Amino acid sequence: MDLVLRRLHLYTGLFLAPWFLMYAVSSIPFNHAEYFNERDKAKGLPPSTTAWERPYDVPVPENEKDLRALGKRIMTDAGLEGNYGAYRVGGNRIEVYVYTFWQSTTLRYFYQEKKLRCDPRRFRWDQFLTGMHARGGFEQEGWLDTAWALVVDGVGVAMLAWIATGLYLWWGIRAIRGWGWAALGLGALSFALFLAWL
Predict the structure, then answer these.
(1) 160 and 187 assigned to the same domain
(2) What is the pLDDT of residues 84-134, one digit of tens each?
(3) Does 127 reside within a domain?
(4) The whole model's pTM is what?
């Protein structure tokens, strides 16, 4: 059993390596978003530009649940593909955020003025990374998005298995139990303090 768990721990860690790397690297721009925004401001680089604006008129549903269907229609009419979300902004605008790993665009439908504006966002590596970090869920229609969500679920299960096998292997080495308790205690204490104070 020890050999099986050692191999499970080893190969689970190797499977998780690219995912841990992605989540670790993408946490940096998440944690320092203001730095990257200020750097662009200093260079005079706008986050997005307007590609086009044209007359547009489709009915806007009263029910918030129907906004996604409207977002799909607006995205299709604009000739865009990708994942998307639709949101009501204020009392006169629907915004459809269309995104892939490499490109994101905001479609702004000013329904009282009957016009649609397309604002592509300039590519930035920090936003590319945070987009990967935050991507997930099963609400998108594409099979690749479903596959990504399934793999992320698998990564979560693998992390739990990695923790469980690590605890088992640590407990089996009597000589390092003290150091293990210290590491486990410090981790739990730091987590508890943040929960209590934030």
Answers:
(1) yes
(2) 999 998 878 999 999 988 899 999 999 999 999 999 999 999 989 988 888
(3) no
(4) 0.76
